[in-house]
Design a protein that fits this description.
Mean pLDDT: 90
Number of helices: 11
Shape: globular
Strand content: 15-25%
Radius of gyration: 17 Å
Oligomer: single chain
Distance between the termini: 39 Å
Structural class: alpha/beta
Low-confidence stretches: 1-14
Number of strands: 9
Largest sheet: 9 strands, mixed
Order of helices and strands: EEEEHEHEHEHHHHHHEHEH
Strand order of the largest sheet: 1-2-3-5-4-6-7-8-9
Length: about 300
Protein backbone atom coordinates (compact mmCIF):
# COMPACT_ATOMS: atom_id res chain seq x y z
CA UNK A 1 0.00 0.00 0.00
CA UNK A 2 1.38 3.42 -0.92
CA UNK A 3 2.14 5.49 2.17
CA UNK A 4 0.90 9.05 2.43
CA UNK A 5 3.84 11.30 3.22
CA UNK A 6 3.30 13.77 6.01
CA UNK A 7 3.23 17.42 5.06
CA UNK A 8 6.05 18.19 7.48
CA UNK A 9 8.93 19.94 5.66
CA UNK A 10 12.61 20.15 6.56
CA UNK A 11 15.68 21.13 4.58
CA UNK A 12 16.25 17.46 3.76
CA UNK A 13 12.76 16.91 2.36
CA UNK A 14 9.51 15.36 3.50
CA UNK A 15 9.70 12.98 6.42
CA UNK A 16 7.75 9.81 6.94
CA UNK A 17 7.88 6.80 9.22
CA UNK A 18 7.74 3.37 7.56
CA UNK A 19 7.13 0.07 9.34
CA UNK A 20 9.05 -3.06 8.41
CA UNK A 21 7.44 -6.50 8.37
CA UNK A 22 8.84 -7.08 11.86
CA UNK A 23 7.28 -3.84 13.13
CA UNK A 24 10.40 -1.70 13.38
CA UNK A 25 10.13 1.99 12.51
CA UNK A 26 12.32 3.53 9.81
CA UNK A 27 12.53 7.29 9.42
CA UNK A 28 12.58 8.25 5.76
CA UNK A 29 13.36 11.45 3.83
CA UNK A 30 12.07 12.06 0.29
CA UNK A 31 13.22 14.93 -1.88
CA UNK A 32 13.77 15.91 -5.49
CA UNK A 33 11.16 15.33 -8.19
CA UNK A 34 8.21 13.23 -6.89
CA UNK A 35 7.57 12.06 -10.45
CA UNK A 36 11.22 11.34 -11.18
CA UNK A 37 13.06 8.05 -11.29
CA UNK A 38 13.61 6.77 -7.73
CA UNK A 39 17.05 6.41 -6.18
CA UNK A 40 17.43 5.05 -2.65
CA UNK A 41 20.52 6.43 -0.90
CA UNK A 42 22.39 4.45 1.78
CA UNK A 43 24.26 6.80 4.11
CA UNK A 44 27.77 6.45 5.53
CA UNK A 45 29.01 5.32 8.94
CA UNK A 46 28.06 7.11 11.10
CA UNK A 47 25.34 8.84 9.14
CA UNK A 48 21.67 9.58 8.70
CA UNK A 49 18.98 10.25 6.13
CA UNK A 50 19.90 13.97 5.93
CA UNK A 51 23.51 13.48 4.90
CA UNK A 52 23.69 13.87 1.12
CA UNK A 53 20.69 16.01 0.18
CA UNK A 54 22.54 19.32 -0.37
CA UNK A 55 24.91 17.64 -2.85
CA UNK A 56 22.05 16.32 -5.01
CA UNK A 57 19.28 18.89 -4.74
CA UNK A 58 19.76 20.10 -8.34
CA UNK A 59 19.10 16.65 -9.84
CA UNK A 60 15.63 17.35 -11.19
CA UNK A 61 15.12 13.98 -12.84
CA UNK A 62 15.35 11.94 -9.63
CA UNK A 63 13.12 11.18 -6.69
CA UNK A 64 15.70 10.92 -3.90
CA UNK A 65 14.92 8.63 -0.96
CA UNK A 66 17.00 8.04 2.14
CA UNK A 67 16.37 6.49 5.53
CA UNK A 68 18.13 6.08 8.85
CA UNK A 69 19.56 2.59 9.17
CA UNK A 70 18.45 0.80 12.36
CA UNK A 71 19.70 2.53 15.50
CA UNK A 72 20.42 5.85 13.78
CA UNK A 73 18.28 8.99 14.00
CA UNK A 74 14.59 8.12 14.19
CA UNK A 75 14.87 4.43 13.23
CA UNK A 76 14.47 1.59 15.73
CA UNK A 77 17.50 -0.54 16.49
CA UNK A 78 17.87 -4.06 15.09
CA UNK A 79 20.48 -5.81 17.30
CA UNK A 80 22.75 -8.29 15.54
CA UNK A 81 21.88 -7.06 12.05
CA UNK A 82 24.05 -8.05 9.09
CA UNK A 83 24.82 -6.00 6.00
CA UNK A 84 22.37 -8.19 4.04
CA UNK A 85 19.56 -7.26 6.43
CA UNK A 86 19.46 -3.79 4.86
CA UNK A 87 17.58 -5.43 2.01
CA UNK A 88 14.48 -5.92 4.18
CA UNK A 89 14.50 -2.25 5.10
CA UNK A 90 15.06 -1.00 1.55
CA UNK A 91 12.22 -3.22 0.33
CA UNK A 92 9.95 -1.92 3.11
CA UNK A 93 10.67 1.69 2.16
CA UNK A 94 10.12 0.96 -1.54
CA UNK A 95 6.86 -0.89 -0.82
CA UNK A 96 5.57 1.96 1.35
CA UNK A 97 6.25 4.43 -1.45
CA UNK A 98 4.75 2.19 -4.13
CA UNK A 99 8.06 1.62 -5.95
CA UNK A 100 8.46 -1.55 -7.97
CA UNK A 101 11.87 -0.67 -9.43
CA UNK A 102 14.56 1.69 -8.17
CA UNK A 103 18.29 2.39 -8.17
CA UNK A 104 20.47 2.31 -5.05
CA UNK A 105 23.63 4.16 -4.07
CA UNK A 106 25.78 3.93 -0.95
CA UNK A 107 28.76 5.96 0.22
CA UNK A 108 31.47 4.65 2.57
CA UNK A 109 29.73 2.37 5.12
CA UNK A 110 26.61 2.55 2.95
CA UNK A 111 28.44 1.03 -0.02
CA UNK A 112 28.24 -2.60 1.15
CA UNK A 113 24.55 -2.11 1.98
CA UNK A 114 23.89 -0.88 -1.57
CA UNK A 115 25.74 -3.91 -2.96
CA UNK A 116 23.58 -6.17 -0.78
CA UNK A 117 20.49 -4.75 -2.47
CA UNK A 118 22.05 -5.33 -5.90
CA UNK A 119 22.81 -8.95 -4.99
CA UNK A 120 19.59 -9.86 -3.21
CA UNK A 121 16.95 -7.72 -4.97
CA UNK A 122 17.88 -8.25 -8.63
CA UNK A 123 14.26 -8.05 -9.76
CA UNK A 124 13.79 -4.59 -8.27
CA UNK A 125 17.19 -2.85 -8.36
CA UNK A 126 17.89 -1.28 -11.75
CA UNK A 127 21.44 -0.08 -11.04
CA UNK A 128 23.68 0.20 -7.99
CA UNK A 129 26.61 2.42 -7.08
CA UNK A 130 29.10 2.09 -4.23
CA UNK A 131 31.43 5.01 -3.49
CA UNK A 132 34.56 4.61 -1.31
CA UNK A 133 33.13 1.37 0.05
CA UNK A 134 34.66 -1.57 1.87
CA UNK A 135 35.28 -5.14 0.77
CA UNK A 136 34.14 -7.99 3.06
CA UNK A 137 36.36 -8.62 6.09
CA UNK A 138 36.94 -12.21 4.90
CA UNK A 139 37.79 -11.19 1.31
CA UNK A 140 40.12 -13.85 -0.06
CA UNK A 141 43.54 -12.54 -1.06
CA UNK A 142 42.98 -9.05 0.40
CA UNK A 143 45.13 -7.58 3.18
CA UNK A 144 42.12 -5.82 4.67
CA UNK A 145 44.02 -3.31 6.83
CA UNK A 146 46.83 -2.46 4.38
CA UNK A 147 46.92 1.27 3.64
CA UNK A 148 44.29 2.10 6.29
CA UNK A 149 44.86 4.94 8.73
CA UNK A 150 45.82 3.64 12.21
CA UNK A 151 42.70 5.04 13.86
CA UNK A 152 40.46 3.09 11.48
CA UNK A 153 42.53 -0.06 11.93
CA UNK A 154 41.97 0.21 15.68
CA UNK A 155 38.23 0.88 15.27
CA UNK A 156 37.55 -2.00 12.91
CA UNK A 157 39.81 -4.44 14.75
CA UNK A 158 38.16 -3.70 18.11
CA UNK A 159 34.65 -4.00 16.61
CA UNK A 160 35.65 -7.40 15.22
CA UNK A 161 37.55 -8.86 18.19
CA UNK A 162 35.83 -7.26 21.19
CA UNK A 163 32.35 -5.92 20.33
CA UNK A 164 31.46 -5.16 23.95
CA UNK A 165 34.57 -3.04 24.44
CA UNK A 166 33.87 -1.32 21.14
CA UNK A 167 30.28 -0.57 22.16
CA UNK A 168 31.44 1.00 25.43
CA UNK A 169 33.97 3.15 23.56
CA UNK A 170 31.46 4.39 20.98
CA UNK A 171 28.78 5.07 23.60
CA UNK A 172 31.15 7.54 25.26
CA UNK A 173 32.26 9.10 21.96
CA UNK A 174 28.69 9.44 20.70
CA UNK A 175 27.66 11.36 23.82
CA UNK A 176 30.50 13.82 23.25
CA UNK A 177 29.63 14.20 19.57
CA UNK A 178 25.96 14.86 20.36
CA UNK A 179 27.00 17.81 22.47
CA UNK A 180 29.50 19.00 19.84
CA UNK A 181 29.44 17.33 16.39
CA UNK A 182 32.73 19.06 15.54
CA UNK A 183 34.40 16.44 17.74
CA UNK A 184 33.96 13.77 15.08
CA UNK A 185 35.74 15.83 12.46
CA UNK A 186 38.44 16.65 15.02
CA UNK A 187 38.92 12.93 15.69
CA UNK A 188 39.35 12.32 11.96
CA UNK A 189 41.85 15.14 11.47
CA UNK A 190 45.00 13.06 11.94
CA UNK A 191 43.96 10.74 9.11
CA UNK A 192 42.87 13.40 6.62
CA UNK A 193 44.79 13.66 3.38
CA UNK A 194 45.36 16.97 1.63
CA UNK A 195 42.43 16.27 -0.68
CA UNK A 196 40.14 15.46 2.25
CA UNK A 197 41.14 18.70 3.97
CA UNK A 198 40.31 20.60 0.80
CA UNK A 199 36.83 19.07 0.58
CA UNK A 200 36.12 19.72 4.26
CA UNK A 201 37.27 23.33 3.99
CA UNK A 202 34.05 24.07 2.12
CA UNK A 203 31.66 25.62 4.65
CA UNK A 204 28.58 24.05 3.05
CA UNK A 205 30.05 20.54 3.07
CA UNK A 206 31.22 20.93 6.65
CA UNK A 207 27.82 22.19 7.81
CA UNK A 208 26.08 19.29 6.06
CA UNK A 209 28.39 16.72 7.67
CA UNK A 210 27.94 18.18 11.15
CA UNK A 211 24.16 18.10 10.80
CA UNK A 212 24.40 14.56 9.46
CA UNK A 213 26.51 13.34 12.40
CA UNK A 214 24.32 15.03 14.98
CA UNK A 215 21.15 13.49 13.55
CA UNK A 216 22.83 10.08 13.28
CA UNK A 217 23.60 9.99 17.01
CA UNK A 218 20.66 12.05 18.27
CA UNK A 219 18.81 9.13 19.87
CA UNK A 220 21.50 6.50 20.49
CA UNK A 221 25.00 5.26 19.54
CA UNK A 222 23.73 1.88 18.35
CA UNK A 223 23.46 2.61 14.65
CA UNK A 224 27.21 3.32 14.62
CA UNK A 225 28.02 0.32 16.83
CA UNK A 226 25.87 -2.12 14.87
CA UNK A 227 27.16 -0.81 11.51
CA UNK A 228 30.79 -1.45 12.45
CA UNK A 229 30.08 -4.92 13.82
CA UNK A 230 28.08 -5.78 10.69
CA UNK A 231 30.76 -4.46 8.33
CA UNK A 232 33.46 -6.59 9.97
CA UNK A 233 31.28 -9.72 10.27
CA UNK A 234 29.82 -12.02 7.59
CA UNK A 235 27.86 -9.86 5.16
CA UNK A 236 25.27 -12.48 4.23
CA UNK A 237 25.86 -12.31 0.47
CA UNK A 238 28.66 -12.68 -2.07
CA UNK A 239 29.39 -9.67 -4.33
CA UNK A 240 30.25 -12.16 -7.08
CA UNK A 241 26.54 -13.00 -7.33
CA UNK A 242 25.56 -9.47 -8.37
CA UNK A 243 24.06 -9.38 -11.86
CA UNK A 244 22.66 -5.84 -12.10
CA UNK A 245 24.84 -2.99 -13.44
CA UNK A 246 27.20 -1.66 -10.74
CA UNK A 247 29.37 1.45 -10.63
CA UNK A 248 32.28 1.49 -8.19
CA UNK A 249 33.87 4.88 -7.45
CA UNK A 250 36.98 5.36 -5.32
CA UNK A 251 39.80 7.77 -4.61
CA UNK A 252 43.28 6.31 -4.99
CA UNK A 253 44.52 8.28 -1.94
CA UNK A 254 41.75 7.11 0.40
CA UNK A 255 43.16 6.02 3.78
CA UNK A 256 39.82 5.37 5.49
CA UNK A 257 38.73 2.71 2.98
CA UNK A 258 41.87 1.92 0.95
CA UNK A 259 41.66 1.56 -2.82
CA UNK A 260 42.68 -2.11 -2.51
CA UNK A 261 39.10 -2.76 -1.33
CA UNK A 262 37.81 -1.11 -4.50
CA UNK A 263 40.16 -3.24 -6.64
CA UNK A 264 38.99 -6.43 -4.93
CA UNK A 265 35.33 -5.56 -5.51
CA UNK A 266 35.99 -4.53 -9.13
CA UNK A 267 37.55 -7.93 -9.80
CA UNK A 268 34.78 -9.79 -7.94
CA UNK A 269 31.61 -8.14 -9.27
CA UNK A 270 30.80 -9.24 -12.83
CA UNK A 271 31.03 -6.40 -15.38
CA UNK A 272 31.33 -3.69 -12.73
CA UNK A 273 32.18 -0.25 -14.08
CA UNK A 274 35.14 0.86 -11.95
CA UNK A 275 36.28 4.48 -11.61
CA UNK A 276 39.47 5.20 -9.65
CA UNK A 277 40.32 8.89 -9.31
CA UNK A 278 44.12 9.16 -8.94
CA UNK A 279 44.25 12.39 -6.89
CA UNK A 280 41.10 11.90 -4.80
CA UNK A 281 40.68 10.61 -1.24
CA UNK A 282 37.69 9.60 0.91
CA UNK A 283 35.56 12.74 1.15
CA UNK A 284 35.94 13.47 -2.58
CA UNK A 285 33.05 11.02 -3.01
CA UNK A 286 30.80 13.93 -2.04
CA UNK A 287 31.92 15.78 -5.16
CA UNK A 288 31.32 12.68 -7.29
CA UNK A 289 27.72 12.13 -6.15
CA UNK A 290 25.98 14.19 -8.89
CA UNK A 291 27.92 12.39 -11.63
CA UNK A 292 27.17 9.02 -10.04
CA UNK A 293 23.49 9.89 -9.84
CA UNK A 294 23.50 10.72 -13.56
CA UNK A 295 24.89 7.22 -14.21
CA UNK A 296 22.19 5.65 -12.05
CA UNK A 297 19.49 7.46 -14.02
CA UNK A 298 20.88 7.24 -17.57
CA UNK A 299 23.74 4.73 -17.64
CA UNK A 300 26.11 7.55 -18.66
CA UNK A 301 28.56 9.60 -16.63
CA UNK A 302 29.49 13.22 -17.34
CA UNK A 303 33.12 12.70 -16.28
Amino acid sequence: MRARLRAQEEDAGVLDLVRTASGRRLEVAVSGNPGGRPVILLHGTPGSRVGTWPMLCHQEGAALISFDRPGYGGSDRSPGRRVADAVEDVAAVADALGLDRFAVAGRSGGGPHALACAALLPGRVTRAAALVGLAPRDAEGLDWFAGMTPSNVDEFRTAFTDPQRYAARITSRAAAIRSNPERLLENLRSGLTEDDRLVLSDAGVRSMLLRNYYEALRTSPYGWIDDMIALTGPWGFDPAHIRVPVLLWHGAKDVFTPASHFSWLAARIPRAEAVLEPDAAHFAALRALPDVLDWLLTGRRQG
